[in-house]
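Give me structure tokens for this 747-residue protein.
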Amino acid sequence: MIEITRIEKEASTISGDLIKSLRAHFPELYMDEFEEKVESLIMVKKDYTEEYLIGQMVLAAIERVSAAEPEWTYAAAFLHLQQLYRSSSRSRAGVKPYTSFYECIRDLVHMNLYDPQLLNCYSEQEIRQLEAMIDPSNDRLFTYIGIRTLSDRYLTKTHDGKCFELPQERFMIIAMTLMMNEERDKRLSLIEEAYWALSNLYMTVATPTLANAGKSYGQLSSCFIDTVGDDLRSIFDSNTDVSTLSKNGGGIGIYLGKVRSRGSDIKGFKGVGSGVIPWMKQLNNTAVSVDQLGQRQGAIAVYLDVWHKDIQSFLDVRLNNGDERHRTHDLFTGVCVPDLFMEAVDERGDWHLFDPHEVRNVMGYSLEDFYDEHEGDGSFRARYRECVQNVDLTRKTVPAIDIFKRIMISQLETGTPFMFYRDTVNRHNPNSHKGMIYCSNLCTEIAQNMSPTYLEDESIVDGKIISTKQPGDFVVCNLASLSLAKAIGHNVLPRLVKIAVRLLDNVIELNKIPVLQAELTNKRYRGIGLGTFGWHHLLALKGLRWESDESVEYCDALYEEIAYHAIEASHSLAKEKGAYPYFKGSDWENGNFFSSRGYEGGRWDGLRKEVAQSGIRNGYLMAVAPNSSTSLIAGSTASIDPVFRHFYSEEKKDYKIPVTAPDLSDATRWYYKTAYHLDQHWSIRQNSRRQKHIDQGISFNFYVRNDIRAKELLDLHLDAWKSGLKTTYYVRSTSDTVIDECESCHS
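Here you go.
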């Protein structure tokens, strides 16, 4: 009995101290019932550890999180942090939290968890200086779902899973890693700026960067896009590249539009081609068998043109009925759509399906290599009509609306296919002088030049096999996102954009991509994707209704402001470090980028002239990713999306976490109209204005009821296309349970 009494006293002391701290930090919370719950837990269980006790206090706190009392999430986060501090202290020989940063780096390097470059590039004195910049009080900014997500998935643990690295150390390591190669005399000040932005949750970096920066494994870029050529070697080489990138945590977009259709000829033998579906089965197996760093299976999206003869079977590959031999449930799908098809849908006209291989042989060109340079006029429709009129070309003719019906059936059942409006994308491509954009990535926000890689020669030289390839443009996505609610609320937007652009540009230099053509493409275009999250959060704080002209106009003005500062920041980097290699002849140089968007007069004229004269560092600049995971860490709403509900539970593998809309109060509640109750045409209007200012794409979801009429969904798609959207992402219906996403793009 004496021993039990001692344990009870120790537990009472620990819980009492923590409750005292909670009362001091959260005076607005009513703590009496919580304290009674904790005391009852102590009385019921006698043989517990300190870790168990604090865990029970966390559970007692999150039980109190509700739409009426959302602040309890910060109390739960505070308690979870106490667990992290104690666990880290035990792993680090009993040192107090945030007092041994240099030793932390040294020990994790010795464990082969951190990259030795951290110690090679920075002196002990510099690391001690950086330790002094760490602000432990910023840990109090986390919600419970935020700190739980960060600690479970991103903080560095020992090989046996014990907590070692703490949240503010992760942010400092990211800053140190991404600023590693900056000039020595200004490096520490740049790190301090980057740490300030990350630790205050003003911005986030993409999942691969957040997880892998400073570590001895993994890579920093989010997604990749490959173009597959129409030959066996290209198909299998692409599969090898995909598996290599997937192993290192990258999501993949793949364009299969050049691959011949089912029934095509091979070496003159008629009707023997198997089409794209068998190759998709191969990719499906790769997605399942080569997972992302052991955390989740690979994430691959496959795109096909809507005029491809295999499009009808392609649209069925994720359905839950039909022949399983023709199903690829683990792939995501996207359709590449020209204006001409949408016009045929709108007018209920016919549509003709062709084999791209036969088009090349008969017509002497590849139909997919063209797009309409102007609305209603251009080289694609001219070439397409030539194909229609050529009697030597076989084709399948169907009502365009029938194909669109199959698109919508698949979307309502599976959420996909994604839509890629290829003419709009290519008309606004600032680097059209160097290539073509055939499709997007896994999350539909990246739009950069693409081309296949071909084997030119393979020979034996001195007993070695030497392969020579002509590298294509293998797209790389380097992502980060700004928290709109915080950036605007604290009036730090220009400062943040400048930090983010430099960080992302440095990712290009630091990242070692195991697929060499991707490494080359990354350096040629130096493409980055600066995005945003917290749009609905910002509207609620400003008291703006989603479905209002005021929100549409504000969206237009805000994203023009972001675009200006992003271009200015990249131009400043170009003056410091040089323009991207393909700048000459681009729309950045000739001014078309500015004139096509109406960026004229005032400050825009000056910036346009400066860019033409001194260049720009990054050939692609802005892209809005889904960032649903990292926006949770930052305590805001995802991307440009509306909230699902005011209060819900985030379901993990073995637990549920209550989550409320951010800054939920009597003042903001009325401006958080939830996703499935919003008129989606207002979302399209907002996104049309937003898209004008973003040189790449936007992960834009439709939220619809599962009983939506076909005409209503069709009207949404037609509205999106006519409004100039480049892509649409998932069709999320109320019948969906969980729609899997590529977490690489959650920036």
